[in-house]
Amino acid sequence: MNALLEKHTKDIEDILKKYPEDQKRSAVMPLLYVAMRENGFVSKQDMYDIAEIIKVSATQVASIVGFYTLYHDKEGGKHRVQVCNDLPCALRGSGEYLEKLCENIGIKVGETTEDGLVSVESVMCLAGCDKAPMFQEQNPDGVFYHEDQTVESTLELIEQWRKQEAK
Amino acid sequence: MSKVDKHILLRHHEIPDIANIKTYQADGGFETFRKVVSTKMDPVELKNIVHDSGLRGRGGAGFPTGLKWKFVDDNNWPHYLVVNADESEPGTFKDREIMEKNPWQFFEGIMVSAYAISANDIYIYLRGEFWELAHVLDEQIELMKKEGLLGKNLFGTEYELNIFTHLGAGAYICGEETALLESLEGKMGQPRVRPPFPPAVGLYAKPTVVNNVETLANVSLIVEKGANWYRKFGTEKSAGTKVFSLSGRVKNPGNYELPLGTPFRELIYEHGGGIIDDRPIKGIMAAGASSSIIVADDKALDTPMDYESVPDVGAQLGSASVIILDDTVDMSWLINKTTHFFKHESCGKCTPCREGAFWMTSLTERIRSKKGTMEDVILLEDVAKNIKGKTLCALGEFSTEAVLSAIERFPDDFDAQVNK
Ligand SMILES: Cc1cc2nc3c(=O)[nH]c(=O)nc-3n(C[C@H](O)[C@H](O)[C@H](O)COP(=O)(O)O)c2cc1C
Ligand code: SF4
Ligand code: FES
Questions:
Q1: Has this prediction a pTM greater than 0.95?
Q2: Which of B5, B172, B276, B392 is the most core-located residue (most Cβ within 10 A)?
């Protein structure tokens, strides 16, 4: 049985409707986002399920997961803090911000906190260069922008996530 | 009639509530689309208006929009309009503001454009990071369906129009139009060999126009007010206004919509408020990380920002993502940043780009850590020159621009880094 399809029948039907009858392969990207809603990464089983829905091989689905940076095949922090440290942001202090942020959380870029709440990543331009330092938060619900950040404002936000978790 | 004051695109500066559909309609919004469809205007006439307006693509290449539309193959159906909202060039953040702040004009622009190329389906390809924005657009599309602006039998005619959003997932190369089409077809985003070009063989092998968000956001006003009205803005060969994304070492970074041909000096010192701490300006990158670095002397500062003039100072206008560099910026540091970017974003399809990006990054890394020699700088220049002209898409070329211009125009920055 196709667990993904069963769980998200309506959403998947809506996605498939966007593309012509004979071009369902186009749905692979939106379907991968649906799969990531569970726990923030795409499992092997999800890849098989998606392959079955759009009638391609699981290897083809895996190659898409590998090609695009917003798809993950491993568990990371529940909130992935993806700090832009590309040229324009770096000209406005993103490098220092990133360093201090990591120091305060006690992890290095690419690592996840022990409780699994936060990972910090360094990413390329996010089209928010005039509001540096900035980061996007990727979590199972989607991708959210946080602009004009300071180390303090980001730490406060992380504290809020921690409190939500505790509830 | 739509009211236009200083801005053609960033009209929220004059009409703060323009993102509300009622406000947009009260200002004459969607009347152009209604008129075009209900009077069954001849698509050829529309293509001519856009052609005559002198509108050129705002995604980077500056290709005449009306001309591109005329290449659409009328012997092969259906046609598609694909909106390029991938906006991933470092330093570019204008399409996002247009879609967020003036969404209905963006929609009306793409709807009139779809009619002009006889397309019934529009796909908006947004970079995956625009996840929140895509959800807002989806709601707005639903609202337009309810308002009778999208769907079958529009305004009692045969014409049908649908709009779909499609989210990418983090890959700069998907901004390249053929890689974008591959991605939209559910494949890895790797550029296609051209020709054929998309107006002949595009999405699902059907005739397809790919245009940038900003390009298309102009279209409804051009059709409403006429080609001559549009030509009043800008220069003879670079008509209209352009949204300049200003970033880097300026006091007031942000988007500024100005007539094409405005000098760099006005953008940087009047609108941008000048350099942080009033330091001396050193360089300008006019087209994001893909630019050659312009030496910011008086001649450069007085250069008009249009497609013809920027090459006079050894660069391109491209997407007009103007990154400002002051005297605190070391060019060997800068190209370490840009080479990292291109190494990360090379799609790997052709060897010179894939391997070249790797070597350029290793060399800039070595030079930056003060372990390099002058030979490394010469080798770096050599690697870059060997990428140029040998790649399948322009990304390969882009990756060499900052490197070559930095070494040639700012030699002192490299002398200071290497062991002689
Ligand atoms: C590597 C690369 C990245 C590009 N990225 C974008 C982009 O993010 N947005 C865009 O509109 N055009 C981008 N382009 C240009 C497109 O290929 C294409 O020329 C453009 O979408 C055409 O629309 P226009 O004529 O309206 O500018 C890119 C091109 C290359 C080679
Ligand atoms: S030039 Fe680079 S990005 Fe373009 S097709 Fe070749 S490898 Fe891919
Ligand atoms: S460089 Fe950071 S958002 Fe553009």
A1: yes
A2: B172
